[in-house]
Amino acid sequence: MSSALPFFPKQIEHYVTETVTRETQVQKRLREETSKLSMARMQTTPDQVAFLAMLVRLTGAKYIIEIGTFTGYSALAMASALPEDGKLIACDTSKEWTDIAQRYWKEAGVADRIELHLSPAAETLAGFVKAGAHFDMAFIDADKAGYDAYYEACLHLMKPGGLIAFDNMLWSGAVADNNEQDSNTVALRALNLKIHQDRRVDSCMLTVADGIMLARKR
């Protein structure tokens, strides 16, 4: 969920989104259609998906798993950055939202690189763990209470050097307010601390969109 750049003035948000960030016409139309939905705030931002696509290219990732796909904006960007024989596993529970995604994936010519799993992400991840699958990169942007479990499963699935990216890890700044105790804030605050202390990974917090945490498996 990243519908705005929460720490920047509106003019900076507009400049980054409309002037600086590269976006294909298909991506732009998908973003605009999604913006009309009642749950539009769940959409990732243009600068964020450009960053994710850059990570795919920089790491040379070939196999990616995404937890929380919504209407497919981030999946579209990452799949477009994959090599032709790459694969992105998209995990979501909503046929309504992912039906929109699939229209745009097909139009962009990347539908054959995306494998959609419509089931609870915990079940999908468990299946891949049981099968001994391995991935180069993961992007987690789903229910915040599930983040810790998704982290552990994705860490198990990552190859050494694999990268896990988490969205909303600043939660509009709420994680820095110890007086804020709602369940999502508490879960994200705890996971930030866990990753910070986790010797299984190298980590970095970025103030992109609503906060992106990167964890690289050692």
Give a verbal description of the structure:
The structure is a single chain. With 218 residues, the protein is an alpha/beta fold. It has one domain: Rossmann fold (3-Layer(aba) Sandwich), CATH 3.40.50. It is built from eight helices and seven strands; from the N terminus they run H-H-H-E-H-E-H-E-H-E-H-E-H-E-E. It has helices at 10-20, 25-34, 46-59, 73-81, 95-108, 121-131, 147-157, 183-197, and strands at 63-67, 87-92, 114-118, 135-140, 158-166, 201-206, 212-217. A seven-stranded mixed sheet has the order 3-2-1-4-5-7-6, with helices on both faces. Strand 2 (87-92), helix 5 and strand 3 (114-118) form a beta-alpha-beta unit. Helix 3 runs parallel beside helix 4 and helix 6 (121-131) runs parallel beside helix 7 (147-157). It is globular and about 40 Å long. The model has no long low-confidence stretch (mean pLDDT 95).
Comma- or semicolon-separated keywords:
218 residues; single chain; 8 helices; alpha/beta; globular; seven-stranded mixed β-sheet
Beta-strand segment tally:
7
N- to C-terminal distance: 28 Å
Secondary-structure element series:
HHHEHEHEHEHEHEE
Binned strand content: 15-25%
In the predicted model, the low-confidence regions spanning at least 5 consecutive residues are none
